[in-house]
């Protein structure tokens, strides 16, 4: 784990990354003026030609607010904040059972939540775009779990899947694989965990193999080690080889390689840039509990867990790994050549992973990085207003912003940072079962924003499965109004 | 504290309050249909005649989701969810300083946050609708901190202020008082804490006295003890007497008294129904830490801290206290007779107070109670579409929904309840400094919903001070669109 040194922090401060500025008593942007007409002008019921879905993994309202305050300041705004429509997404999943109805599980993992928007249907923890039946591989268990990316491909649209995680991780696997266990990422993994679902057993194979079979045009992220696994136990042909045979003849492995890919005419693109997850933009800064701090007298809050003078070191990613913005930009460049339009999913994966780890800088940096990638897409959308952009999260997460003078009890980890306002912000992580253990997901409704044709459909309180319909393009209304829609109440 | 007994819980279950039902794999309300036109039809740039502001104190997205799942189920919806427009409100306040700019304090209390929407300006913790200068009572310290309710009154609108807290508590005091310390609720309190701001000292007096001077037409809530304090030290004339002389000739003290108030022709209405805060709708259910549970072998999770079979006892409020719905209904009934329209603030106060106390049932019941009161207002709004309703929170709070099988470390309190779906939900409180201490506010952006004329202005990411402008009625747009508004970025 790379730790920021006092010197590196001070160098950053000297470079002007942290400016001590105050805020005014009133900062209203356009005090007292109505903007009803401006919102009305953003509503369009046309069918979008292109759709870009951004998923901030674990990016609840708390994570968004932390990133905004840290990187943009109290009066600053993220790109997410620019989107005209905003709703909340309810993301419960199912508990295992005999069906046909299932008890809800209010706090799920990234596999069933990815399934929800990918297929319009819910499933159980760990499962990807496959039904919740407790019997695995029963006939028809994938019935009706067709994904928006499969639908778009079959409609002749170009398709792309981008993530900072292993590309075989749950969120990018949602639209690209059907399997009972998210752990079955490569052939070796599947032989161990899903033996009845391997290709040898007559199944669809591991997530990596299924992704090669899907043939989506641009696939970018981490996870080389999964694709380097042999198709057959003890064999030498890897998933990389298999994918090449399936048309993925462009396989960039560095940022420079990716920059040199200029067209899909030379083949589909499978660009995996790290063996596991990609490196975070900001260096880690580990939140620690009061108990841990007291038990570690050598603990230096300046560099180890934050103090009101600590900033994040923002230069952690090696130059040979592309940023999420670079991957997003390249994907749009390649996919937008298609006359029928394109569908692209972009995941900021390590917001979740660093939240689990109580790594406050890692989490904030990944949120900002996804927001920067959104900025790339928004620039494209302004020039191509037939593009729908949706931004959401799969589930909420642990991190909370507490009063900068407050010390949470006992084993809750916390760290304090200095924001661009020059003011202290304290972040707390309290859901782990013990010091150093992984913190957990939380169940609060998560934000969903949108701009472009049919963007108004994410408005209000929606179910995560409703996003599926919007991704596919909606049919005309049946004429009922906001109030008379049928499903409110039980 | 009233504790639910096993018998009372079982009686409730038998009465059908908890029905074990499952959820379907897909519950989309109107699968695949566009509702752009329905949203467009909700946009109106007319100036609202009537404005009703609901404030759920401490009601962040986590608190909303908990109440929805518990009381309505995974596929159920609250009245809040029916509102067509939804934004997020950023609610930082100011740290003390010399000015003119101030360092932001990202996690404030209810006084400066109430000041933000009441006056359109920020201030420091503890202060109400008064400037942040570190010198108290400097000339002009209230300049520019005119409240929306004062503005409405002076425009000839009827005005109302309703809360389940003491009516002199910070949130109802926001639009009705200007004072340096929220603790100065009655004359005795002010003599102790704000001696330079009493009427004897030439100041505006305590919050209760200022409320009598303001002359808002309908004032309903708790806090009799503050109004029973003597105007002068050792005197016998109380604030009740003073208010009567100021025109508050109707002073109901019970739900029956309130029902018998039928018109403002007989005088303004000051209805205070409890000495302190009003009683919560649901009986308390105290979340407890694993450490506490282990140290208390007599601990019965069934009745003391929740288990997967525990439900909330929903019959805690005595019949002589009106519910928030009853107070809201009566306020609307009385105020709506005014030809110039009315402005009404309604607070669900004890969402926050029970969140501080890790009382999971108390918190949920108060959220549902405020949502029920919103239902009363929505019914009025449907018949009177020139009414703008805004629903928001002042700040976020501690409670988090975690996986029902997870035991958070050490001193974090948790409790598990059975929802109307028949499924377990686990709620955790982890920000207190020690077992049993008060949990703290959190800084996540909070929801804001609206319906009615100019409701579209709460859309997207807004500053809490922006709500002030919407409450007053906005002037026509200056013609720029959503994208070109000036204040994004720093």
Provide tags for this entry.
homodimer; 490 residues; alpha/beta; Alkaline Phosphatase, subunit A; nine-stranded mixed beta sheet; four-stranded antiparallel beta sheet; 17 helices; disordered N terminus; disordered C terminus
In brief, what are we looking at here?
The structure is a homodimer of 490-residue chains. Chain A is α/β, with parallel strands linked by helices.
Architecture overview:
The structure is a homodimer of 490-residue chains. With 490 residues, chain A is an alpha/beta fold. Chain A has a single domain, classed as Alkaline Phosphatase, subunit A, CATH 3.40.720. In chain A, 28% of the residues lie in helices and 16% in strands. In chain A, β12 and β13 form a beta hairpin. The longest helix of chain A is centred in the last third of the chain and has 24 residues, at 360-383.
